Amino acid sequence: MILGVVEKEKNIERELYTYQKEAIETIFERFKSFPESYNILYQLPTGGGKTVIFSEIAKRYIKETGRKVLILTHRIELSKQTSKTLTEIKVKNKVINSTVKEIPNQEDFMCYVAMVETLNNRLKEKQLDMKNIGLVIVDEAHYNSFRKLFKYFSKCDILGVTATPLSSNINLPMKNTYNELIVGHSISELIEKSFLAKATTYSYNVGLGALRIGINGDYTVKSSEVVYIDYVMQEKLIYAYEERAKNKKTLIFNNGINTSKFVYDSFKSAGYPIRHLDNKHNDSERKEIIDWFRETPDAIITSVGILTTGFDVPDIEAIILNRATRSLTLYHQMIGRGSRIMDTKKTFTVVDMGNNLARFGLWEDSINWQSIFKNPDFYFENLTSDENIERLFTYEMPADLRKKFKKSSKFEFDVEAAFKENKNKGLKPKLALDMAIEQHATMCLENSEDAYDALELIKLLNDSIAYRVQQ
């Protein structure tokens, strides 16, 4: 583990922090300790400056060895970002995207930045002959799409960088690709030293009984949409936004385009400035939406997974997780979008609408990455199940909802206690549910003018009803 005091140090070309310098030194020391073809995985939280670190590594490697560096990315935004960073530190580089069919002047470049699928196609079709590559750097290394390229660079050193050293494919653990993991500073350390903003997290319990797990190990889009397109969930989302994130620049993450569009319609109808963005938008549409988001105070973007990487708007003040996930990587990526620190922004808000906090803990909690790297199966097997999460949940009626039942003196009803009491008295235990229904009905009658009002109030008790049934 890289240790040491984190502090700013001035540098005319690029300001590097002590922990970044220490990471670079540690990585070079490890490569020098082994023969060629040694694979290192480096972990650093989102916002810690991974791009800066591996760009400096590329510059130093070229200078010290005279050999070329190949940097692999999986999204065009990351390719552009990496190329820009390299150019800033005077590393002449060539981006290999879909428009590049060949590189006739290879001697002019010591560094390439390549989209993984494009490069794989060019190499497979023998359109490119990349010579004198000594180091391959893999950005967002937890994605498995990169593995197909490693056979072309079997004699090269490989450096993978990621915020979460947990493979996107549970059947292809990262320990099978990388010889060792180097762990950088933790989120809490970077927050303490004012390199990341501090998150304040609020969690709203949701019933996830309808969710189904797909072959990739995460919840399916289809089952997520059943839960999150529901009218009650939309109402709960707007309530959570108004309670915790109103008037803040906000990103809302969803699992499914249809859900995101429903969120857009709901917020638009409520009068909030919101745009929807998904991977079906072309480059010009995407740019227009993101520019609008940057320039509009209190703006909201609702999206799917398109903004989890390669998207940097420092003044984001709130992240809403309007989805459940079993992916620790995705959990950290989504929250990380709000972690950039500014002179005018030291904290940000996280609103969890998917029981993710109960599943993974706080974003800034300490994580034993070495253990996860070496034993990923053990980690997955011990993820808290949705059943256990909901079993531990205790429903408490929100203050705003209580106001709608202000004429009632009793809001709670312990179904479990009533069940046991009826059983001990020799009565049918299921009478407890009848008693719970009667208590809800009394609340609605006490606070309504007529039957229509009572029916509207019943709709507001869905969470309370679900909790009592669960008991």
Number of domains: 3
How many β strands by DSSP? 13
Q: How many helices in DSSP terms?
A: 19
**Major sheet characteristics:** 7 strands, parallel
The secondary-structure class comes to alpha/beta
Radius of gyration: 26 Å
Biggest β-sheet: strands ordered side by side in the sheet: 3-4-2-5-6-1-7
CATH topology of the largest domain: Rossmann fold
* Envelope shape: elongated
CATH superfamily of the largest domain: P-loop containing nucleotide triphosphate hydrolases
The share of residues in helices is 40-55%
Unreliable segments of 5+ consecutive residues: 1-12
Give a verbal description of the structure.
- Helix 16 packs across helix 17 and helix 17 (about 430-445) crosses helix 18 (about 450-460).
- The two termini are about 45 Å apart.
- This protein is of the alpha/beta class and about 475 residues long.
- It is elongated, with a radius of gyration of 26 Å.
- Mean pLDDT is about 85; it is low at about 1-10.
- It has three domains: about 20-190, P-loop containing nucleotide triphosphate hydrolases (Rossmann fold); about 195-365 and about 385-390, Rossmann fold; about 400-470.
- The protein is built from 19 helices and 13 strands.
- The strands form two sheets. It has a seven-stranded parallel sheet.
- Strand 10, helix 9 (about 285-295) and strand 11 form a beta-alpha-beta unit.
